């Protein structure tokens, strides 16, 4: 039977353990214990160092992921703040410009003289209309003429007591200081094209102009207030060998169908 042999083995181990315990307390095996400790301690020390290194590496990689995540969030927040800051600056500029225009209007109080179109001169080089108002209504040369809700159609070029001649914006000799309502508020000169088209020249090449952008008067021209609608960008010509780009415009209204206009006069 194997069981008595196993019991005897357990009993023998128990007796050995008790003897070793007694000898330990008596200090009889201290040299042996010290020898074994000298062998085992470096091993345990290495294992402890390895465990710490593994823990540090784990913490490093975990912190690295958190750092990258926080860094990306910081970049996104900075971009949003930059966009908001740019929008605030733009709105502040527009608000200041509006205040200036309102102050100008309040100070100068321009008058609007309603006039009827009574004649038209159409030639290969000119586009003009005749209106039934003149110096009797305080109309002067170079004053702007508008249609509908502030759409610039031309400027007065000749005045008599009861009539005035207006050069339309699509006339070959027409020149209007203009601005595009894009992010850059691009400046340029709107010129007529023999009564066929409008084109805005001298637009800086590095500024973004898109089809559909609105073009208004820039206010940089005598007697022409800022904000009168001229037209809409229909196409852009931006060639590498030219210093400026050019925009072809669609007029803000049908210039060949004008019947009633208003002249903006200064008191």
Largest sheet: 6 strands, antiparallel, barrel
Rg is 45 Å
Biggest sheet strand line-up: 1-2-5-4-3-12
- General shape: rod-shaped
Q: How many structural domains?
A: 2
Structural class: alpha+beta
CATH fold topology of the largest domain: Thrombin, subunit H
Order of helices and strands: HHEEEEEEEEEEEE
Total beta strand runs: 12
The CATH superfamily of the largest domain is identified as Rod shape-determining protein MreC, domain 2
CA-CA gap between termini: 132 Å
Helical proportion, percent range: 25-40%
InterPro entries: Cell/Rod_1, Cell/Rod_MreC_2, MreC, MreC_beta-barrel_core
Family: Belongs to the MreC family.
Pfam families: MreC
Keywords: Cell shape, Coiled coil, Membrane, Transmembrane, Transmembrane helix
Name a few traits of the molecule:
alpha+beta, 6-stranded antiparallel barrel, 6-stranded antiparallel β-barrel, 267 residues, membrane, 31% strand, Cell/Rod_1, transmembrane, 12 strands, Thrombin, subunit H, 2 domains, coiled coil, rod-shaped
Q: What does this entry look like structurally?
A:
The model has no long low-confidence stretch (mean pLDDT 80). The protein contains 2 helices and 12 strands; from the N terminus they run ααββββββββββββ. The chain is of the alpha+beta class and 267 residues long. It has 2 domains: 1-109; 110-265, Thrombin, subunit H, CATH 2.40.10.350. The strands form 2 sheets. The chain has a 6-stranded antiparallel β-barrel. The protein has helices spanning 2-26, 30-108, and strands spanning 111-122, 127-131, 144-147, 151-159, 164-168, 175-180, 187-193, 197-204, 214-217, 229-237, 244-251, 260-265.
